[in-house]
Amino acid sequence: MDILPILSTLRRHKLTSWLLILEIALTCAIVCNAVFLIGQRLQRMDMPSGVAEHELLQIQVADVTSPSNPYARLAEDMAALRQVPGVLSVASSNEVPFGNSSSNGNIRLDPAQPERTLNATTYFGENLVQTLGPRLVSGRDLQSDDFVDVEAALKGLSTGDSKSLPHVTLITQTLAERLWPGQNPLGRIIYLTPTVGLRVVGVLDSLARPNAYDQAKAQYSMVVPLRMGADKDLSYLIRARPEDRANVLAAALVALKKVDPQRVVTMQRSFDEVRRKFFQDDRAMAGMLVGVIVALLIVTALGIVGLASFWVAQRRRTIGVRRALGATRGNILHYFQTENFVLATFGIALGMVLAYGVNLFLMSHYELPRLPGIYFPVGAVLLWLIGQLAVLGPALRAAAVPPVVATRSV
Amino acid sequence: MFAYYLDLALHSLRRNKVLTTLMVLALALGIGATITTLTVLKLLSGDPLPQKSTQLFYPQLDPYPKDQPFSRSGKKLPWLMSYVDAMNLLHARKAERQAVMAMSEVKVTPQAQDGKPFYAHGVMTTADFFPMFDAPFQYGAGWASADDESREQVVVIAGFLNDKLFGGANSVGRTIHIDDRDFRIIGVLRPWAPQPRFYALHLSGRNYGMGDAVFMPLLSARADGMTPSTVMSYGPGSDMQHLETAPSIWLGLWVQLSSTDEASAYKLFLGNYAQQQVALGRFQLSRVALSDLMSWLHNEQVVPDDVRLQAGLAFGFLLICVVNTVGLLLAKCLRRSREIGVRRALGASRGAIFAQFMVEAGIVGVAGGVLGLGFAELGLWGIRHQPAQYASLAHLDLSMFLFTFVVALVSSLIAGLLPAWRACVVAPAPQLKAA
Question: Which candidate, B377, B372, B396, places its Cα nearest to that of B321?
Fold first, then answer.
């Protein structure tokens, strides 16, 4: 198919051609960036937690009258939960990955260092690693004689008595690599305050923090051997087989109520719900972006249909003349298809530049990374396809124009 | 004349139903998306207290001592205040009104025999909170400054809590059980939920949504062991039970200053206070800030990024829809060159042709606006079913309703300019010859 006659025709319809090119370009720019944003969201929603997600349950209870000894109550609750049939393991924890509410600490590698090295979340509670299920890459798990009561530790902090403070910790691989790149983290010391130094005794493959908003810092987690008493902020974590979870949850609530019938259950959920809730905004945004892309492509396609139909109607006589001079239906069909392809190509080229500009703007305003090159060919193919689909109807109508039109009304 | 153009335009639109439907539908989609996102944006970036916002200020200090510099976010001042500083500034009474506050999740136990306890959003604050923020009372009133100091066990409850616990009756003088203590109700608020919840910014994770349920004097609540939702510590020894002396920031301070003179005087006072603290060796830096309500909300970017991104996206969408409409209108008008030629030959001026095509574009706009309004309602319905904090607030108000038609008309008239211009420069003679 010869492109030159098409270009010369388009040159005579500059305004409409430019409008179509502009529309395709704008669509291309927005679609490229929207697809990129969707990719970002999906990637975020896929963030690993490091825990056995499909086997975990989280329960929080609040006591109407606070127990006289919260540690005894904790032991009682944990024992009651262990008795529930189907329970594989029980832990107490101050927080859960993606749970939003978190306790964080500033880490220093040297107690005299004025500025913190980084901020990491501190998990504490009993039996955490076994229940949550992150893999121990090296070193050992926390042992019962590592544990210290929170109240005692706080007292120790203010009095300076280091005996009542925890001494060891587990950290994630990511954190270890960030603190001591390429070195063995075992035996090294992390300072939470100038007086609290924790020796790294084990490294976990992965454990996301509750407030994992920033992907780069999502794995900055440590597990500290602190024991909390029963409290409304304390979570009981239960591990059970995925198919048992519903029954185990119901039975666990009954067991906890048995310990104190007055207490209120303030939270009961599976870890699947934790993840769903944490990423709900991302899911909503991705859904909205998909909607926008679809609506945009439809509007653009309809625009192309409208303009192409107009063109075909306008050129009926020309088409008739061409047919009378020997052009086949296929020639006419291809003519319109090629014309659309040429316009789409101009539009896509302009759209790429625009897409890049939009991306630069977004980068400066919304902390987004640069648009990867892969989105350009994807956007181009998508728009070429939409263009060809949209023009097919009008082009077929053009191909159906009989040669006899040429002889009429001239 | 207008009626005639209207008639012509309607006739022309009717003649090509498919094209007309396409134009209206595309424009309506763009308008619907724009109005939906703008409604949310307007809602989220609105003024929570329009009658008072210019008089309300949020002071900030840098309370970090020499050995523990603040390294959270470099240049930014800490969001909250330590107890010592907040109380010093409160007691100095240098502003017309001042109140400190912290949010807390509290357990409320109804008095009824089978009453099940539940958790509610609580505010721990001081006396000026209610008059300063114009919180409207249904029954009773707030407490006095003296009650703060004497740690009175009094509480102001929200209307919805009063409805829930007392069936909406005047409950002043009755008691409710909060976190295992008895509090005497001294006031019941009318429905009150400023959006955004400016006073809770950085104090709780909730920037939008329903109002708080109970308001208690800070000192009484703390004496009863209630803990704030947000505590940031900058040194060791941050025991939640001893926050008053701990190196922790957990309070917000708001002051009311009626004039710019008062505001600059207060800023001066704040600066002097910080310098004094530096001299005393408590602070390392003497930097301070005093932001009025709207700049505070703006600087802290209370509107989520996603919402601004969505609004931008919707505008891009509308732009494409307008370009689309230009194209389709142009196609229509070029197709009617012959008709234009006839009208011109019969004496219609260029202006008349121009007006006729603009009227046609305007009709497309109005139709797009009506349909777009439907799409916007649909979009807002969708947002109300999203899990966002502000979901339940997403409603079209009168101004946005009117704005829809402004957007529709303006965008369609802009879209109509080029085709109408092309139509009015059509030379009549060749068109007539061809006919």
Answer: B372
pLDDT at B73: 46
CB B135 within 8 A of CB B204: no
Task: Name the DSSP letter for residue B112.
Answer: S
* Cβ-based contacts of A295 with chain B (< 8 Å): 29, 33, 317
Q: B68 vs chain A: nearest CA distance in angstroms?
A: 6
User: Looking at the structure, do residues B169 and B132 belong to the same domain, yes or no?
Assistant: yes
pLDDT tens-place string over residues B50-102: 999 999 999 999 887 765 544 444 567 889 999 999 999 999 999 999 999 99
Write out the H or E segment, with its range, that includes residue A197: strand A197-204
Same domain, B253 and B323: no
SS3 B320: helix
Closest CA relative to residue B70, chosen from B278, B273, B243, B232: B232
Global pTM reads: 0.82
Structural contact between residues B69 and B284, judged by C-beta atoms closer than 8 angstroms: yes
State whether B283 and B377 are in the same domain. no
Q: Please identify every stretch of chain A with a pLDDT value under 70, giving residue numbers as ranges.
A: 1, 158, 408-410
A292–chain B Cβ distance below 8 A for any pair: yes
Tokens representing B229 are 């939702």
**CA of B88, closest CA in chain A: separation in Å?**
24
Q: Which of A116, A232, A307 sits opposite B71 (nearest CB)?
A: A116
Please determine, for residue B434, whether its predicted confidence score (pLDDT) is greater than 70.
no
- The answer to whether B323 contacts A26, with C-beta atoms less than 8 Å apart, is yes
Amino acid at B377: E
The single-letter code of the amino acid at A329 is R
Contact A114, B67 (CB under 8 A): yes
| A311 contacts on B by Cβ (under 8 Å) | 331
Number of domains composing chain B: 2
Rounded CA gap, A82 and A78, in Å?
A: 6
Indicate which of B285, B323, B364 best probes the interface with A, i.e. most A CBs within 10 Å of its own CB: B323
Instruction: State phi, psi for B426 to the nearest 5 degrees.
Output: -60, 130
B245-257 pLDDT, tens per residue?
888 899 999 999 9
CA distance B161 to B291: 33
Query: Which of the listed residues B237, B261, B287 is the one where a domain comes to its end?
Result: B287
Does residue A131 contact residue A90 with C-beta atoms inside 8 Å? yes
Whether A303 and B305 lie within 8 Å, measured CB to CB:
no
Determine, yes or no, domain membership for B379. Answer: yes
DSSP B77: P
| Same domain assignment for residues B260 and B137 | yes
* Closest-approach residue (CA) in chain B for A100: B205
Chain A, chain B: beta-carbon pairs less than 8 Å apart:
131
Q: Is the ipTM of this complex over 0.95?
A: no
DSSP code per residue over A28-84: HHHHHHHHHHHHHHHHHHT----S-GGGEEEEEEE-SS--S-HHHHHHHHHHHHHHS
pLDDT band at B162 (very low <50, low <70, confident <90, very high): very high
Interface contact flag, A114 B335, Cβ < 8 Å: no
pLDDT bucket at B186, cuts 50 / 70 / 90: very high
- Give the one of B19, B180, B320 whose C-beta lies nearest to A296's C-beta: B320
Asked if B122 and B223 sit in the same domain, the reply is yes
Domain containing residue B349: 2-47+304-434
Q: Does A113 touch chain B (CB under 8 A)?
A: no
Cβ count near A26 (within 10 Å): 26
Quick one: B93 and B226 in the same domain? yes
B134: left (phi over 0), alpha (psi -120 to 50) or beta: left
- Closest Cα in chain A to B326: A19
Which residue out of B328, B421, B425 would a mutagenesis test of the A interface target, given it has the greatest number of A Cβ atoms within 10 Å? B328
B102 plus B229 within the same structural domain: yes
